[in-house]
TrEMBL record:
TM spans (from-to): none
Record's protein name: MBL fold metallo-hydrolase
Highest taxon listed in the record's lineage: Bacteria
Pfam family, one: Lactamase_B_3
Length: 259
C-alpha cells in the first residue's frame, strides 16, 4: 500500500493495484462560497494532477473535499464514488459515472478494493457526511478515513483496521466548538480499531491560509502527546507525519481478515 499526501484532506491511495484520489484539492485557491475575505487557502505552486486515476472518492460535498476547480481539471470519465451531497457536485460537473454511497453501502472497484461508507462528519444540524473503510480484497488489508474526527461506533465490528487517516490535532473556534476532533477522538478510534499506523489529515502542508476565520482558529494537542497517549493505553500504533507530495510505502503486517 502506497500513500501520497497532497495537502489538506487530499490523498492518493494506491491499494490493490488501484489508484484512488481522495478529496482532491490540487489547483486554484480554496474558498467557501467564493468568500476570500472569510477564508482562503492557497499554495505557491499547484499540485500536478496524478495520472492513471482509477477512482475519485469524495467524503463530503463542501469545497475542501469536493473542490470544484480541481474536479473540473480531472477527466470526467473517471468513476466517482461520493457521499450523496458530494455526488450532486460531481454530477453537476458532468462526470459520467457517479455512485452515491449512503451509510452502510458498499462499492467494489475492479474486483480489487471494497469501499464501505460509514457515518462521518456532521455538517449543520441534519447532514451527516461519509467516512470510508477501504479493503484490499487480495490481502484483507484495510484503511479507514474520516476527515473531521467523527467516528461511528459501527466501525467496532470491523476491527482490527490496519491504517487510519484522521485528525490527530484538535482545531476549533471559541464558543462554537470543534471543527476537527483530534486528540480524544483519535485515541478512541485507535482503541476500537487497533491500527498498525495512523496518519493525520487536514493539516496545512505547503498551504497558506488567510481570512477572518483564521484569526479565531485554535489548535490543541501535538503528535508527541498523541504518541504518549497511545503508549499509556498499550497501543503499538505507529504515528506517521507525512511530507506533502512525498509518496511512501506503508510496511504492514498481514493480520486476521476483518469480517
Amino acid at each position: 500500500m502506497y500513500l501520497t499526501w497532497l495537502d489538506s484532506n487530499s490523498w492518493l491511495i494506491e491499494i490493490g493495484s488501484q489508484r484512488i484520489l481522495l478529496d482532491p484539492w490540487l489547483v486554484g485557491p480554496l474558498t467557501f462560497a467564493n468568500s476570500d475575505w472569510f477564508f482562503k487557502g492557497s499554495r505557491s505552486q499547484e499540485r500536478p494532477i496524478p495520472e492513471n486515476i482509477d477512482l475519485i472518492l469524495l467524503s463530503q460535498g463542501l469545497e475542501d473535499h469536493a473542490h470544484t476547480p480541481t474536479l473540473k481539471q480531472l477527466d470526467r470519465k473517471i468513476t466517482v464514488v461520493a457521499s450523496p451531497n458530494a455526488a450532486k457536485v460531481a454530477q453537476g460537473l458532468g462526470y459520467a459515472s457517479v455512485t452515491s454511497l449512503a451509510h452502510g453501502q458498499t462499492f467494489t472497484l475492479n474486483n480489487q478494493v471494497e469501499i464501505t461508507a460509514f457515518p462521518g462528519s456532521q455538517i449543520g444540524p441534519t447532514l451527516v457526511e461519509n467516512g470510508y473503510l477501504l479493503k484490499e480484497l487480495a490481502t484483507g488489508l484495510t484503511l479507514y478515513y474520516e476527515p473531521h474526527g467523527y467516528h461511528s461506533p459501527q466501525l467496532k465490528q470491523f476491527a482490527p483496521v490496519d491504517v487510519i487517516i484522521t485528525p490527530i490535532i484538535d482545531l476549533g473556534l471559541p464558543l462554537i466548538g470543534p471543527i476537527l476532533k483530534g486528540t480524544n477522538s483519535a485515541l478512541e478510534v485507535a482503541k476500537w480499531l487497533q491500527p498498525q499506523v495512523m496518519l493525520h489529515t487536514a493539516a496545512g502542508g505547503d498551504v497558506i491560509f488567510e481570512g477572518l476565520l483564521t484569526k479565531f482558529l485554535k489548535t490543541g494537542g501535538s503528535f508527541a502527546e498523541f504518541r504518549s497517549s497511545l503508549e499509556k493505553n498499550n497501543l503499538a500504533t505507529r504515528v506517521i507525519e507525512p511530507k506533502a507530495g512525498d509518496r511512501f510505502e506503508l510496511q504492514l503486517e498481514k493480520r486476521a481478515l476483518a469480517i
